[in-house]
Design a protein that fits this description.
By secondary structure, the protein is an alpha+beta fold. It contains four helices and four strands. It folds into two domains: 96 residues; 99 residues, hypothetical protein PF0899 fold. β1, α3 and β2 form a beta-alpha-beta unit. Belongs to the V-ATPase E subunit family.
């Protein structure tokens, strides 16, 4: 019987040793699996954080770029408004020219035009500076230049300062508003460099 006890004890000891070995191996596998998963999670975390950081950087750059664009547009808008005000002020100043200066401008500009001398000179109906006598003076000067010297004076409602020369439905618009519009493109860069440099 003692052999059976010894044999039974030996089987139990071997079984316990095998069980202990299986448990130990399972613990090692468990620890390795956990370490592997933790390592994979850390790598994934780094990838996610890197991606998020990159996206945040791109988003921040876009926001800054957009802010610069808006600031530039606001600056351009302000410059445009300032230029508009400068040209409006120029128009106001031209419309307020003293009578003598206006008549000199008108005479000099008419004499510089390539006209026959029998056109119609149109001014605003409220313009009391341009009289038939003044047109006679201009006609004399035109005759002296070899032109017909037969300009006729007529009036029109709501004509901004300046005048229009017309013949056969074709006109030369020398109103101050038209003169400023036509020379604005040429003058705008120069005015801007004076104002904004």
């Amino acid at each position: 019987m003692s052999n059976i006890n010894n044999l039974t004890n030996k089987i139990i000891e071997d079984a316990e040793a095998t069980a202990k070995q299986i448990v130990d191996e399972a613990r090692i596998k468990e620890k390795n699996t956990i370490n592997k998963k933790v390592s994979e999670a850390e790598k994934e975390k780094k990838i996610i954080l890197s991606r998020a950081e990159s996206e945040a950087k791109i988003r921040a750059e876009r926001i800054v770029s957009n802010a610069h664009l808006q600031a530039r547009n606001m600056k351009l808008s302000a410059k445009g408004e300032t230029l508009d005000n400068v040209f409006k002020a120029a128009l106001t100043k031209l419309n307020a020219l003293p009578q003598e200066e206006f008549l000199k401008f008108m005479k000099d500009s008419i004499l510089s035009l390539d006209i026959d001398g029998d056109e119609e000179v149109i001014v605003d109906e409220n313009n009391s500076a341009v009289t038939p006598k003044f047109i006679e003076e201009v006609n004399k000067a035109l005759k002296a230049k070899g032109k017909l010297g037969q300009l006729k004076l007529s009036f029109k409602k709501n004509l901004s300062g300046g005048y229009i020369i017309a013949k056969n439905g074709i006109g030369i618009n020398n109103t101050f508003e038209s003169l400023i519009k036509s020379s604005r493109d040429e003058l705008e860069a120069e005015v801007a460099s004076v104002l904004f440099s």
